[in-house]
Design a protein that fits this description.
The protein is mainly alpha-helical. It has helices at 11-16, 18-22, 28-40, 42-62, 69-85.
Amino acid sequence: MSCGNPHETDCSEVLEEVYLYLDLECADDRRDLIREHLDECSPCLREYGIEQEVKALVARCCGNETAPAEMLARLRSKLTELRTEA
């Protein structure tokens, strides 16, 4: 996805990392780049808002349950595969 406007960080790159950003799992400098991009790019901000709502819904439905590390690793691997195919 691209909004058509030039950015320091490409839209597709930002959206690929939105879950890492939401989960505070990326480096501070990377978080700053993503935050900057979201501040100036309304299409990505809209997409981020959707992602944030989905994450909040899952958190409400699952309570304080934590997924096993092996499951998280498989899920991230599968998501990476799907992004590569797209």
